[in-house]
Design a protein that fits this description.
Elements: H1 2-33, H2 38-73, H3 79-90
């Protein structure tokens, strides 16, 4: 009897602490590597940085196109740009131009 009481005094808290530690470990594991955990947050931040860089590049490209369109639409058209566009659209080249064929 005495041995059982001592064993219960020792085993019951040990089992409860073990279960509590298991539950805490479960939540800590999912907080770190779950679908909304720390690793997922780091992946989202990397994706945001990549998309922000792409957005900056597209904004630069858009401003360049807006500048070129403004040159074509203004009262005084840029002759070089007009000649370049006419050559591209008509498929013509000047006799002094160097043509480099890069592929299909």
């Amino acid at each position: 009897m005495v041995i059982r009481r001592r064993l219960r005094r020792f085993l019951i808290p040990l089992v409860l602490y073990g279960i509590s530690a298991g539950v805490a470990a479960y939540f800590v594991h999912h907080a770190h590597s779950g679908s909304r955990g720390i690793e997922a947050q780091q992946k989202y931040e990397a994706q945001v940085a990549e998309l922000s860089a792409e957005l900056d590049g597209l904004k630069t490209q858009r401003s360049e196109w807006e500048r070129r369109i403004a040159l074509l639409r203004s009262d005084q058209i840029d002759r070089d740009l007009l000649e370049e566009r006419a050559r591209v659209m008509l498929g013509r080249v000047h006799k002094n131009d160097l043509v480099i064929i890069t592929g299909p």
